[in-house]
Design a protein that fits this description.
Layout lengths: L1 E6 L4 H15 L3 E8 L11 H21 L3 E7 L9 H15 L3 E5 L6 H13 L10 E5 L20 E4 L4 H10 L13 H14 L5 E9 L2
Helix pairs in contact: 1-5, 2-5, 3-4, 5-6
Length: about 230
């Protein structure tokens, strides 16, 4: 099975799907990661050498994280960080439609549309458009994933609220997820920040406990063909 993990920023894919990515890869599926945005370049002046260096560093880190999790490839699109809403939606959709045509994924995981971060919301909208359940499409399911410090910090004020209905057992892959997050040196925060290692582990254990597992990742089904 071809699986696409669609992310707005480097490390979103690991926070939301890292354990599931590792599990799918271990089961023999081909996992591709597509990261639409530059990442932390917004911390620096646009076009500055510091911004360019940070973008390059994050791309290197994303490839290392993918290697740890067993993903086959990482594709970068370089959209402006935290400025997706300044772009024509059609341009973002066309980028994602290109992935639909070239990768032909059977399963797609994308950002949750009700997140606090505007880039996440635009990514979700583009995924909805690009992966419409058209006749003849190879895509069988689209899921939305949560991202620590964006999904919960929206406090369900933006529709749709994140109400998970699918839980993937990642008990055997949680340590790999944390190792992949560690590859994003400088992106983790001290506890009790939601993006701390301790909080990420606690979230996985809490999601797991909800369905009788030691650790899980939670998803919201957007649509799925039986």
């Amino acid at each position: 099975m071809n699986v696409l993990i669609l992310a707005a920023h480097p490390d979103d894919e690991v926070l939301g799907c890292g354990g599931t990515m590792a599990r799918l890869a271990a089961e023999g599926h081909r996992v591709s990661v597509a990261i639409l945005g530059q990442g932390a370049a917004a911390r620096f002046a646009p076009g500055s050498p510091e911004a360019a260096a940070e973008v390059t560093a994050l791309q290197v880190k994303s490839r290392e994280a993918a290697r740890i999790l067993g993903a086959a490839e990482v594709l970068h699109f370089g959209l402006p960080d935290n400025r997706f809403d300044s772009l024509d939606l059609l341009d973002v959709v066309k980028a994602v439609e290109g992935l639909a045509e070239s990768l032909r994924p059977e399963t797609v995981y994308a950002q949750h549309g009700g997140d606090l971060n505007v880039d996440h919301a635009v990514t979700f909208r583009a995924a909805l458009t690009a992966f419409r359940p058209l006749p003849g499409s190879p895509t069988r399911a689209l899921y939305a994933y949560e991202v620590a410090s964006s999904t919960e910090w929206a406090f369900a004020q933006f529709a749709p609220a994140f109400v998970p209905d699918t839980f993937r057992d990642v008990t055997a892959f949680l340590d790999l997820k944390l190792a992949a997050l560690a590859a994003y040196e400088g992106e983790l925060r001290p506890f009790p920040h939601p993006r701390s290692e301790r909080a990420v582990r606690a979230q996985a254990e809490w999601r797991g406990a909800a369905v009788g597992l030691a650790a899980a990742e939670a998803f919201r089904t957007v649509w799925r063909r039986a």
